[in-house]
Design a protein that fits this description.
- The protein is of the alpha+beta class.
- It is 30% helix and 27% strand.
- The chain contains seven helices and 13 strands.
- The strands form four sheets. Strands 6-7-8-9-3-10 form a six-stranded antiparallel beta sheet, with helices on both faces.
- A hairpin with a 6-residue loop joins strand 6 and strand 7.
- Helix 4 runs antiparallel to helix 7 and helix 5 packs antiparallel against helix 6.
- It is globular and about 70 Å long.
- The protein starts with a strand and ends with a helix.
């Protein structure tokens, strides 16, 4: 059993609050003995975009954000699990304890929490339905009420046209497990959300700023295109390990997929030189992230 300390960041990648959680060694579990099914559905970014843009803006819904505190600790386990306590937590000389609820670490914790969350959402309102293609998307359509709920692990993105209905579900969630109402959505999946008149802007400014600083390009001037037309990159004679090239490509791909698709052209070009890359080519890719407005 291990105590993990973590700082939760806001959309600018600044510490928002600090968290402590107890984790167990799930890597020592044996399939068929103390765990069976472990699969838990995970929402896709495309589904979040669907809720934020097509549904919300076209239907005139307001998007709210709820965060479940210590989510895994609120779900029950189907299997019997025992853990060995550290010496500082002995009770009457007993060094072992039986888990009644899922904690962080066991392989089935994600599945147990999804089942708990799914049962609550579907049971809170009998009119609620689940999408046939996205198991983390729920919807309710009535005469005067329209609701979409996107569950993302311990976060709920709720788009609805009734503040009273949202207030009621917040109270219902808090009656089952502690939940924090974060108001109008401004951060989802690490991506900042800014609302305009009939528009929703997705931004990764904090993520991009940290990436630019890591490669020493804070003074780079913005450009209209992420890569200069006619740029020619040549493979290096040998491997260059002074720059984490694969990590750079992964970060650029994340930016392209989430908020800045224009950089995908840069990723496709730089990916041809993964094994034999030059320092100039790597800096060209890092500079592409600095061009994000």
């Amino acid at each position: 059993m291990t105590l993990i300390l973590k700082a939760k960041l806001d959309k600018s990648l600044q510490p928002d609050r600090r968290k402590a959680r107890i984790c167990v060694q799930g890597n020592k579990q044996i399939f068929g003995v103390n765990h069976f099914d472990t699969f838990a559905p995970y929402t896709q970014l495309s589904s979040v975009r669907l809720v934020l843009t097509l549904l919300t803006l076209n239907l005139g819904l307001v998007v709210y954000h709820m965060d479940v505190e210590t989510a895994f600790l609120n779900s029950l386990l189907d299997e019997e699990l025992y853990l060995r306590l550290p010496s500082c937590l002995e009770f009457d000389g007993c060094r072992h304890a039986k888990l009644k609820k899922a904690v962080y670490g066991p392989k089935q914790s994600g599945k147990a929490w999804f089942e708990t969350s799914d049962s609550f959402i579907m049971g809170d309102d009998s009119r609620m339905k689940k999408s046939d293609v996205e198991p983390c998307l729920y919807y309710l359509r009535g005469d005067r009420l329209t609701v979409f709920i996107q569950s993302y692990v311990d976060d709920y993105v709720v788009a609805c046209n009734s503040w009273q209905w949202y207030h009621d579900i917040v109270e219902a969630v808090n009656a089952s497990y502690p939940c924090k109402d974060l108001g109008v959505l401004d951060l989802v999946m690490g991506i900042g959300v800014r609302w305009g008149v009939g528009t929703a802007y997705l931004s990764q400014q904090g993520y991009i700023a940290s990436m630019v600083a890591a490669y020493g390009l804070e003074d780079a001037r913005p450009a209209f295109l992420p890569m200069t037309p006619g740029t020619v990159l040549l493979p290096a004679d040998g491997k260059n390990t002074c720059i984490p090239y694969r990590l750079l490509l992964g970060k650029l791909k994340c930016i392209a997929r989430c908020s800045f698709p224009d950089t995908m052209a840069v990723v496709s070009v730089l990916s041809m030189y993964v094994l034999h890359h030059r320092r100039a080519g790597a800096l060209q890719g890092a500079q592409a992230s600095a061009q994000v407005p």
